[in-house]
Amino acid sequence: MDVIEASTRKEVDAAIPEAEILFSWAFGDAVLARAERLRWLHVPAAGVGAYLTPSFRARGAALTNSRGAHAIPIAAHVLGVMLALTRRLKPAIVEQTTTGMRREDWWTGDEVPSELHGKTLGLFGYGAIGREVARRAAGFGMRVIALRRRPQGAPAWEPELLRALGLPAEEPTVAEVMGPRDLDRFLAASDIVAVCAALTPETEGALGAEAFARMKPGAWLVNIARGKIVREEDLVRAVRDGRIGAAALDVFETEPLPRESPLYTLDRVILTPHVSGLSRGFWPRAMALFRANLARDARGEPLLNRVDPDAGY
User: Fold this and answer.
1) What is the pLDDT of residue 59?
2) Which residue from 98, 113, 291, 305 puts its CA 20 to 30 A from 50's CA?
3) What's the confidence (pLDDT) of residue 112?
4) Residues 102, 96: Cα–Cα separation, whole Å
5) Is 255 a catalytic residue?
6) Residue from 255, 291, 301, 306 carrying the catalytic annotation
7) Domain range annotation of the chain
8) Is the CATH number of domain 71-271 3.40.430.10?
9) Residues 145-159: pLDDT tens digits?
10) Does 3.40.50.720 match the CATH number of domain 9-68+280-299?
11) 149 catalytic, yes or no?
12) pTM (two decimals)
């Protein structure tokens, strides 16, 4: 097998007509239209929407992604922001830098920090990321429920995939896995909703005013998945009205988040710039997955993380 490393657009343009296997970020339809010999595209991300171009879909090549390679850092991020909200670290830092930490002025009444212990965490989407969030949440004494497209238990994980990604084989404890028809019950039962789902036609805009009205008064929202799953205008209104008690957002409908967004003005909102998956551990896991798939391809075996282009994941 000949391997070509292309680090510039010019090098990609030169190599793409002969490429049978492509491991790359998205280059757009014009580039993929020239990949006449392409039979397999591997995506270094989990989301594949940008790769499902007309030329690629018409070619019928295999598509795999790096689903699961981000699970460890993103799960840590989710627990991190939940702890920050619970322990009120954002106002504590502000207090530290402005007033010299006068405890009697702000840790009173409803402002006293809370606990994750005993709360119900609802996972909106239960794949690799949701699996690892559930594992860590259990360590804080949380009850975990999940909502997924196919609620018939946890997804089956290929042992080789788990080994490549460094993920435990043991399944975490989830009290209940629900389906789309259970959305209202799921929202009503969750003290915190963590969005871990892929962006699909079914999930786009799924969490807006109607969904927020069905959540527990004062419940929290964490989104590390895709910004367009949450209607930001509705979220701003729900936070201001107190319907949503707090939120932590790593993804947004428009990225980077415009400076004029009212989200910047909300005290009970933590914002991070789409960094929850960044980690020095990502590329070793992503490459281990790709090497495992290269070996499978050579043996004529099914590829790990094969994506259904129609489903979008």
Assistant:
1) 87
2) 291
3) 81
4) 9
5) yes
6) 255
7) 9-68+280-299, 71-271
8) no
9) 999 998 875 567 899
10) yes
11) no
12) 0.92
